[in-house]
Amino acid sequence: MEENNAPKSRLAFFVVILLMVTTLAVIVTLQNAASIGVGFLFWHFESPLAVALLIAFALGLSTGLLAMLPSTLRRKQQIAYLEQRVGGLDINSTRQ
Prior knowledge:
Shape: flat
Strand order of the largest sheet: 1-2
Order of helices and strands: HEEH
Radius of gyration: 24 Å
Number of strands: 2
Strand content: 5-15%
């Protein structure tokens, strides 16, 4: 019966974490409502500080994910190859 409670407690944990992160995001947004000037190459615009921080975070996150993509694809390809080899070994061992 404990096994059935494990997914519920895990979900509850993630809901609590999500609520805490959302609360912190709202607090940061309210405290950083001041408008700032942002300039990048030829672009210049005014934006609330919280929006500028959110954009910087999103750009950093997407850059990190894109940097991980080649190794992730290579790893999946290697796993598929090794699974195929293991399947071939099982067939050969039953024939003997």
